[in-house]
Predict the 3D structure of the following.
Amino acid sequence: MKEVFLNVRENTELAKGIVKMKLYCSSLPEFTPGQFVNLSVGNFDGVLLRRPISVYKFNAAESTFEIIFEVKGKGTTFLSRLKGGNIPATLFLGNGFELGANVKKVALIGGGLGCPPLYSVIEKYKASGVKFYTYLGFSSESKAICVDDFSKASEKLTVTTDDGSLGEKNFITNAFKKDIFAVNPDVVLACGPTPMFKALKALNTGIPTFISTEARMGCGIGACYVCTCATLTGNRRVCTDGPVFNLKEVIL
């Protein structure tokens, strides 16, 4: 964990209300895929809490990383309008996705804004020979993001939308269910909304499955206990014990 100032290098709209931001820091700490940053949003008009946002791409050589977020309120609106300057931030926070040496095939399952954090897993492990089979679900084509990047880096990419405007008209977990035996992944990594996690848990595949959870946060460093989630061993803090948990341990 490190307190830094991040310089805004790029700020572009990927889809309506969805923004990609590229940030620079001369002294980036080490990063594990699935970790997040806690960004200041200006401390104005009663907007005090920082915003936790997962990392999409990480480039150690350039000392940059990218995040993708949805513009929902005053804080994210403030971030979306930045064209330069420095943002106070704490990074990199939480526990991420880590693959064991025996993992050769990975199924990535993303839903909506949960898709971008999964790409950093490919960035880290693709060069080690790990093969990725990716499943991305969106409400519609207008909300689809990062599809080209995942397509280029995956052995197979499956896209579903609720309305059928892109890919299959299906839920992403149903599309994955059809492929389980053909792909036979060593591990499943997922990030998305709670209903997606519930559907994934109901598949009861027996394959080790890890999910990146989301919760409203206060401090982001484990002190305030705002972001607890229920697990079989009691309440855990998403910011420090997570955001990545074993799916079988989480009570949904």
About this structure: The mean pLDDT is 93. The domain at 105-209 is CATH 3.40.50.80 (Rossmann fold). Helices lie at 74-80, 116-125, 147-153, 172-183, 194-203.
